[in-house]
Predict the 3D structure of the following.
Amino acid sequence: MHALTLLMAACIFVFGSILVRLTAMEVLRRRAVSRNGVAVEGECVDRTWSQHGGPHYVLTYTTLEGRTFRATFSSIALPPGFTSESTATIIYDPADPGTSMTAFALHKAIWRSPGDVYAALGGAALCCIAAWMAMESI
């Protein structure tokens, strides 16, 4: 019984650690784009619908070097009132031009991005639960 509890605790801890790591990677991506980013205008070329029913917009942007990229953004990453005829400011990382964010999303406080907050809190909670389970089984 103790071995099964420890195995479950280890699995929960690994899953929690993955959530925390993914959130940290998003924060680091935001930081890289924020510090080194170059702002260009992005033009909406398509609109798609996610499985959850929300619109996603495909924007193209051209780097200062003349390379064109396509990026898909959810409606929460774009300013209110954004339509398929709109343009938006895209900020990309010159070291990795395919890594981009909208200026609206970049300047939005991280706690206003519920997915990031929930992933970090959920991951931390899972790590705590795993530690508690391991302590109880000893």
